[in-house]
Each structure stands twice: as C-alpha cells, then as structure tokens.
Design goal:
alpha+beta, five-stranded antiparallel sheet, three-stranded antiparallel sheet, flat, 656 residues, 14 strands
Length: 656
C-alpha cells in the first residue's frame, strides 16, 4: 500500500486532534443512554436481575429468573445462520457482468488472436460476443476469488464465524457491526534452522502481496454519528481500542503512523491513560465472581475514526489537497491517542469510504441503534418471572398450615419454633390446649399464577420466535400434530425470518461483498478477474426459491407414488435433488455398487431369518412327537460328516 506524502504541521495536527476528540466525547456522552439499555438487555439474557429490581424483592422471597430471552436469541441466530450459510456450501451472493460490461482490452485482444490462430477470419471475429463471454468468465472468477478470500483467513476467524458474532449481538442488543474489508500484510511465524548455531528458531515472514481482512466489532466499542438514524448517511464512525504499550508500538511501526508521537506519548504516560468506563465496571460487576472495577493500569485508549474531514484541515495534518478543493470534505482514516493524531490518510480503497456495516434486528426511525430481542420482549419476561416467583412463593407458603401460638400459655423454656413429630408441649396449669395453638391453612393460587405466566410466555412467542420453531409443538396441538399442519405453521413463522434475511442481505452481504469487489479491483494483481460487475445478495431469494422447490419436490414424490406413473421417474436423481433442497450432502446416498451390496446383504439376512424360522418350526414338531431335537440334529450332522469323508477319496482319485 502506497504511503501518502506528509508535510505535517504540528500545530495544525494538534488543532485537528482537539476538534476530533471533542467530537468523540460528544458522541460518547450521547451513547450512554444506549449503554444502560444494553446492560439491561445483557442482564435479561444472562438471567440476572437489575439492581433496583433485586432490591425490591423481599429477603425470603423467590429470586427465580427464567432466561427465555436467551432461548429466543440463540434460536433466532441459529435459524438465520442456517439460511445465510447453507450446509451444502451454496454462496449467499453472486457477481455478474453489467448490461454493458467493461473488461481489460488485452483480454479481448488475446481471445481474438486465439480465434484467428484457430482459422477464424479476422473480419468474422465477433468482439461483442467475445466481450460477453470473457465478462462472464471474469465475473465467475471474481466470485470464486472472493469466496476463497472469505474462506481462507489465516490467523483470523472465518467470514461465517464473524457473521455469527454480528448476528448474535444484533439479536441481543439490536445492532451488530461488521468491519471491512481493509488491507493488511499477513505475517506468519515459521521455524527455521539458524545457520550459525544450528538450532531451530521461529522467524516471522510476510506473505507475498496484500490481503483483505474483516472483523466483528463489539457494540461496546463503536461510536457512530447518531445525528442520523440511517446508517448509510453517517458522517463518521469511531472505534475504541484498548491497547498495551507493545500493541501501541506495533501500531506505530505500521505505514502512515507517526512513531515519534507514539513514543512521546508513551514517555509522558508511563502508567497508561485508560480509565474504566461505566459500562466496563457494570459488565465486570455482572459476573458472579467479580466485585471491583477492571484494572487498566498500563493500558491506553486508542481511537480510530473513519469519516469525512474538510480539505483545509487535512492540509495541516500532512495530506496534500489541491487548493481549489480545500472547501471539500474527504473520506479519511484518523487514529488518535489522547488528543494527538498518530495517523491521518485519505480512505485507501475507492468505493469504501466508511468500512462499517450495521445489521439491525428491529430498526425504527427514532434512533440510530436498533432494538434487540430482550428489549422487544422485556415486559413479557418481567411478567413471566414475576408470575413464577409469586407461584413459587405461594406454593411454599401454602404447602403447610400457619401456626399461631399463645406465648402466655406455654410453660417456661418451651421453644414454639421447634415443631416436629411426637413433640410434647408443656403448658401452664389450667390452660386449654385449644387456647395455646391455632392452625390456619393459606389458600393456594399456584394454578392461576402459572396460567398468568403462560399468558406472558405466549405473548413473547407472538413478539419473537414461536416455540414450535425450537422443536416444541405442545402449544400448537392439532395443527402441530401432523407433518402438513406443522409445515404450514413453520411456513407462516418464516415470514419474519425472511425479513431478517432480507435485512442482512441489504445491510451486510451486499455492501460488504461490494467492498470486497472494490478491494480486488484495486489491490488484486489478477487481471482475469477484473471488470465492471453487479453484486447481488442471494439470501432472501435463495430462501424463497428453496421453499418453493421443497414444496414442488413434495408434490413430485406424491405424484410418482401413484402406480400409474411407476418407473417413469429416475428415482436416484430425484432423491439426490431432494437431499440438496434440504441442505443434506448427496454423498450420504449410496452409490450403485454400495446399493447392490446392501440389497445382497439384506437378502442374505432375510434368507437366514427364514431358514432359522423353518428350523424352529421343525424342532417344535419334533418335540410334539416326543423326539429329542438335539439328538436328531447331532445324528444328521454326523451323517453329513460321514458322507463327506466317504466322498473325499473318490474325489482325490478323480483328480489324480
């Protein structure tokens, strides 16, 4: 990656740093309200009561907290990931040439020359046909190249794993963040023999060329421009990094970073500059074993900003901007420690101005961040847990009588709380035992309270994922007892899932894959993959096509079961297509030879079973006639052996 020319003015850089740090502090203050909501979401997910709720629960009261939000979040994530990343390896995106494709002229000239060498007259060479053919080949090659880049990520999580984390936080907090693609030179450790000592040692080696990388960004570390509610209209996005001195020095050694500023800052802040944020303290206190704020001694807060900055501010920060463009805004990447700028460059990839992609579970126009499942069903989980706590408390208090004791009627030294079987109670003289004790039964309302809990649980199913999507069809008896009825219910429940798939397509897949396309157009040296292409996210369309195909498959199987059409369909091919439509590996099907071997084995086992059954019938008849079956079998076996021995000499003579 080319380094951008620096003509840094320290005063201008410090001024830019002060302006940007003030911008970060403002957006961090605005985000605190969301921090509090996310903490409540996480407590609800983990089954931990908010401190104010726990304080209002009595000392001897039940503190049960059913984690129904966790079940809903995990189920939704698992279902969405199965749809976005099918088990059969089908891609959830496609790349195709534009209506008027553009590719490198050298590729067209090369193909035309090949046709001429094959005997085609130059005037008969159809360049338009060549253009369309090569454009299709290039787009297919680009799609394969991107698929390989998403699969091969040494030292980093795979794209599927990263998207899993994005979806998990989207369902838990309402917003998931994917960052990338960006540029890196990957370093791999390799063992080598030291020529001087002859000993093995590990040395770091840079892989040839540049590589794209992408990563999941926790919601706690992201600070977007919240003056807008549409993620596509943000002016900037900040990311907070917590680094050790070594990590900060490694950062300073990267291209376009100012190592002088890094060293100067490290010397001035030997104990670090990181202070625990409120959400970090609350997250630590949420753990059962943690009771104090995190120790951040020696740590540094490093701030990364992607967004627009005016040209006249960038000039002072060391970036060459033509004077006639000083009034314009440019997409930039800025890194800071404290109020000091340690990097300021124009965004390195054309078409990728702010490399953050946001996926929302429940988005509305009232705020930038979305609502997660815990927020959507908060009242339902509160109602379920309140009802269950009351039911448990009522069951406990109504499990036995309440006993009232007249303390004046008891003899001295008698403990009224020591109640057990066969206890002898000592009363004062002349006191009627009926005046000393009275027992009262407390009414039980457990069934009513459990009914209330069920009502809130059903409301939660309506707001989020129904329970039969998790495999529990007890709540849908009747329709859920039959395969066709349950299939109809699952189809109806797939409607909101389709919306989630479509949102992921629009918010993550399409812009990210488009970013990968821009990355390869700029940094990939392979000319045979480049061209003017369209990017299509196929998650929602593939989901709809799969459902339609599945229904048609079921209809086809029903039709072919009719004896009138027996033998008219290639059963092996139909079965293979059915396996593909339900995301099962066709390799699970037996080959022709394996199927024949299996049939032979089944026939042998069936024949052996029939012989055994006949032997049992014969032995039963022998027993009825008073014969000893064992003796008869021994006699038959002996005769067979004797006949074999007599036949052996004759066979030897014939052979001789």
């Amino acid at each position: 990656m080319e380094e951008q020319k620096k003509t840094t003015s320290p005063g201008a850089v410090d001024a830019l740093g002060s302006i940007l740090r003030a911008e970060f502090d403002e957006v961090a203050n605005r985000r605190q309200l969301y921090d509090e909501r996310w903490l409540r979401d996480l407590r609800q997910y983990k089954g931990v009561y908010d401190p104010e709720v726990l304080a209002n629960i009595g000392k001897n009261k039940s503190k049960i907290n059913l984690r129904i939000s966790k079940v809903k979040c995990d189920t939704s994530k698992a279902r969405l990931m199965d749809l976005l990343f099918p088990a059969n390896g089908e891609k959830n995106f496609s790349i195709s040439p534009t209506s008027v494709p553009t590719i490198h002229p050298a590729l067209i000239q090369k193909r035309a020359a090949e046709l001429v060498e094959q005997g085609v007259a130059p005037e008969d060479v159809d360049e338009d046909a060549i253009l369309r053919e090569i454009a299709k080949d290039c787009s297919d090659a680009m799609m394969k190249e991107i698929a390989d880049q998403l699969t091969e990520a040494p030292g980093r999580p795979s794209y599927r794993a990263v998207c899993g984390d994005v979806c998990a936080q989207a369902f838990r907090y309402g917003t998931g963040v994917l960052k990338g693609p960006l540029v890196e030179k990957r370093v791999r450790g390799r063992y080598e023999i030291d020529p001087k000592t002859g000993e093995w040692s590990m040395n770091n080696h840079e892989d040839a060329g540049l590589r794209p990388y992408y990563e999941f960004v926790p919601i706690w570390n992201i600070y977007p421009d919240m003056s807008v509610s549409d993620a596509r209209k943000v002016n900037f996005v900040w990311q907070d990094h917590l680094m050790s001195p070594k990590e900060l020095l490694d950062l300073g050694n990267m291209p376009n970073f100012s190592m002088d500023v890094v060293i100067e800052y490290l010397k001035a802040h030997k104990a670090g500059d990181a202070e625990p944020k409120q959400y970090e303290t609350d997250l630590r206190l949420m753990g059962e074993l943690e009771t104090s704020s995190p120790d951040l001694t020696g740590k540094f807060r490093v701030y990364e900003r992607w967004g627009y900055i005016q040209g006249h501010q960038l000039v002072g920060a060391g970036i060459d901007i033509p004077e006639e463009q000083h009034h314009e805004s440019f997409p930039t990447n800025v890194w800071m420690i404290g109020n000091r700028v340690i990097k300021a460059v124009i965004a390195p990839i054309e078409g990728i101005e702010i490399p953050y992609h946001f996926y929302f579970y429940d988005k509305d126009e009232s705020s930038f961040f979305g609502n997660g499942i815990p927020t959507v069903m908060r009242d339902c989980q509160v109602g379920v847990n309140a009802s269950v706590r009351l039911a448990v408390d009522n069951a406990a208090i109504s499990s036995g009588p309440q006993i009232a004791v007249n303390m004046r009627a008891l003899a001295d030294g008698v403990d009224p709380t020591d109640v057990h079987a066969w206890k002898v109670w000592c009363l004062k003289n002349g006191v009627d035992v009926r005046q000393a004790f009275a027992a009262f039964d407390m009414p039980s309302h457990t069934n009513e309270l459990l009914g209330l809990s069920k009502m809130f649980s059903e409301f939660a199913d309506e707001l989020t994922t129904p329970r039969y999507m998790q495999g529990d069809n007890n709540a849908v008896r009747g329709a859920g007892d039959t395969a066709s009825g349950l299939s109809m219910l699952m189809g109806a429940a797939s409607v909101p899932v389709k919306d989630q798939v479509k949102s992921f397509d629009e918010d993550i897949t399409k812009p990210f894959i488009k970013g990968m396309y821009h990355w390869n157009m700029k940094f990939n040296p392979k000319q045979e993959i480049k061209g003017d292409f369209d990017i299509l996210a196929r998650g929602s369309s593939a989901l709809i096509a799969k459902e339609i195909q599945g229904q048609r498959m079921a209809q086809a199987v029903a039709i072919t079961d009719n004896p009138r059409f027996q033998g008219r369909v290639k059963d092996e091919e139909l079965l293979e297509d059915i396996f593909k439509s339900i995301d099962l590996d066709p390799e699970l099907l037996r080959s022709d030879k394996e199927f024949q071997d299996w049939q032979q084995k089944q026939m042998t086992m069936q024949a052996a079973a029939e012989v055994e059954a006949k032997i049992q019938v014969i032995m039963s008849e022998m027993e009825k006639q008073g014969m000893d079956p064992q003796a008869v079998l021994a006699q038959m076996l002996g005769e067979a052996v004797q006949q074999q021995q007599q036949a052996a000499p004759a066979q030897e003579a014939v052979s001789a």
